[in-house]
Amino acid sequence: MRVAVTGSTGRLGSALVAALADAPFTGPRGPVAWTRADLDLDAPAGVVQALDRDRPEVVVHAAAWTDVDGCAREPELALRRNGEATGTLAAACAERGIDLLVVSTNEVFGGDREDRTGYAPSDPTAPPNAYGRSKLAGEQAATGAFERAGATGSASLGLARTAWLFGPPGRDFPHKILDAAARALAEGQPLRAVDDEWGTPTYAADVADAIVELLAEDALAGVHHLVNGGIATRATWAEDVLGRLSIDAPVEPVPGTTWARASVPPRWGVLAATPLPSGEPMRSWQAAMADYAPILRRDRAAGAGAMAAPAASGVAGPNATSPR
Fold first, then answer.
1. From 119, 131, 203, 292, active-site residue
2. Degrees, nearest 5: CA angle 296-309-294
C-alpha cells in the first residue's frame, strides 16, 4: 500500500512516518513523507502535482496550522489553511480514487457539557474558537468533496480526531512544564497550572500506531476518536510530569483565566475513544507518559528547551500551540 503523509516533520506526522516504515503493508519503500514543498497550506493546489507524481493509494493529512492563538488573531487565514486547503486535497484525492484520512481535533466540540462524558463522533459540533472552526471547516470540506464524488468514486474518507498531543519533536506541554518549573524554582514561587480545563494527554506515537491499524484493517472510513485512556487537567498533567522526573516543585492550581489569551480552549475537551479493529483500547495516558519520561530526561540533561518562554505566556496553562 502506497501511503503519503502530509506534515511529515510535525509531531504526529513524524510519528506516522516512523510507524508506517515498520508496517509490512507499506513495502520496502515505506511511506511517502510529504513536506510543505508537496502540500503548502497557503498554496494547496500544488498538491495535485505530488499526487500525480507519487501516486499514493492513501493520504494521511496531518498537516495543519495548529497555533490556536494565531488562528484567533487571523481567523480567515486559519480557514484557508485548515479548511480550504483540506478541501482542495480532498477533492483531488476523491477525483483520483485515493483514500484520505484527515486528522482533526477535539476542539470541534463546544467543551461546555456538564455530564462529564467524552464527546462521541455523533455528538453535535460547536467549536468555541477560530482554530476549532477552521478544523471543522476542513472536516466538512473533505466530506463534501467525497460526497460529490458519489457513486462514481471508489475512495474512502476517514476523520481522525485527537487531543492534547505530546511527543517529539519540539516543545510540547511536558517540555514547557519543565521550563516553567525551572523558572518557578529559581524565583522561589510555586508553578501555577490550570485546573479547570480537562482533556486526555495523548502520545503521538500511540495515535500513529492506531492509524496504522486502521489502514492495515481497511477500516479507515468514518469518524475515529483516537486518544489515550483517562482524563486530566493541565495541573494534574503537570504534577505527573514533575513526579516522573523527580522535580520537587509545588504546583498551584489556578483557573484558565489567569492568563489572557487570544483564543479560548474548550473547558471539557474529552473525547470518547472509538474502538479500534483489534478491539483493544489505546493505553492510558499515564502508561504513555511512562514511556515518554526517558525522552524528557534525556532532553533535560542535554539542555533542550533551555530557551524558555516568558512567564506571561502561560506555559503551565493551555498550550499556545494546539494539542492537535
1. 131
2. 0
